[in-house]
Amino acid sequence: RIKLQKYNTVDDAADLLRTAKNVIVLTGAGISTSLGIPDFRSKGTGLYSKLEHLGLSDPQEVFDIRVFNDDPSIFYTIAKDILPSQDRFSPTHRFIRLLQDKGKLLTNYSQNIDNLEARAGIDPAKLVQCHGSFATASCVKCGHKVPGESIFPEVKAGKIPRCRKCALGSRKTANSSRTSLSSSTSSNKNKRKIAKDGTEKKIKRRPGDFDSNSDSEFDVPGDIGSVGVMKPDITFFGEKLPDEFGDRLAEHDRHQVDLCVVIGTSLKVAPVSEVVSFLPPGVPQIYISRTPVGHVNFDIDLLGDCDVVVAELCRRLGWELDHEMVPGD
Ligand code: OAD
């Protein structure tokens, strides 16, 4: 769309924040990098740069649902490195909380799965985790949902977490047909994997492959083909976003928003990348990031480290950005 250059300075951005009553803040991985959590696409430091050793044609495949269904070990090779582990949050998280405290935050749409918005005290009613989170995990086979943290020990140990509900069912079946399955020994157990259709197929194990199947919980001959894999409820490519995303945006926020602030995202992933163009044309839009984007035309680009930019905005607004605040305060 064509825009009249009505706003373009840092002071304009500060004025917009001062007068706005209903701000949408759209965030990405860039707001957590100052805490040592890598983003996805920054060259050299982003997660996708670090996945070259996996030999995937596209590193994004680690988050592709078809790849996961075919071979969950690819995701679980890296999952332990992206588990939410931080209690701290960045000055930018604190800035979003400040907008909330001042009664200006309409919604924080976050693409992040580190759950740090919650740590910073963003009201769950004002937070949409567009790409889900590690807060829960579900069985890909039977849908059984568990608290995310319950699978963390297995993930950290390099194992593929499996569904306890399926395992219980499978154990009963296995017990009643143990004789017919008795040829399945623990030595060949490790040579099986679950194919897309849920059936087992034999695979060659390579040195360094971790044991997807060693938990004694599931050490029931013949059970593994019927026991689903647990997947954290983060949104993979090929999966639908939580309903809350589209519903809230279209039915609630679109009619109320008077300012949109986009922070620390490359806006490469739809449909979140389309939020900005979905808002009414008169709503001013500010972009804060290290890297400019060419495919979206913002009213104001504030390029740089987002923690520095929000601190400067607060200074000009006379707002105190107390980022030493203890999480949960
Ligand atoms: P990206 O890695 O694509 O973009 C992060 C942006 O933040 C880049 O433009 C960086 O330059 C910028 N950035 C990094 N650190 C910054 C800092 N300290 N201050 C300011 N800017 C900074 O991450 P996202 O846009 O969040 O999806 O990625 C979107 C989605 O792609 C993710 O949710 C994930 C990924 O595939 C799924 O996994 C489904």
Automatic annotation (TrEMBL):
One of its GO terms (biological process) is subtelomeric heterochromatin formation. The active site is at H131 (proton acceptor). Residues 3-320 form the Deacetylase sirtuin-type domain. Zn(2+) binds at C139, C142, C163, C166. Its cofactor is Zn(2+). Residues 175-188 have a biased composition (Low complexity). GO terms for cellular component: chromosome, subtelomeric region; mating-type region heterochromatin; nucleus; pericentric heterochromatin; rDNA heterochromatin. This is SIR2-domain-containing protein.
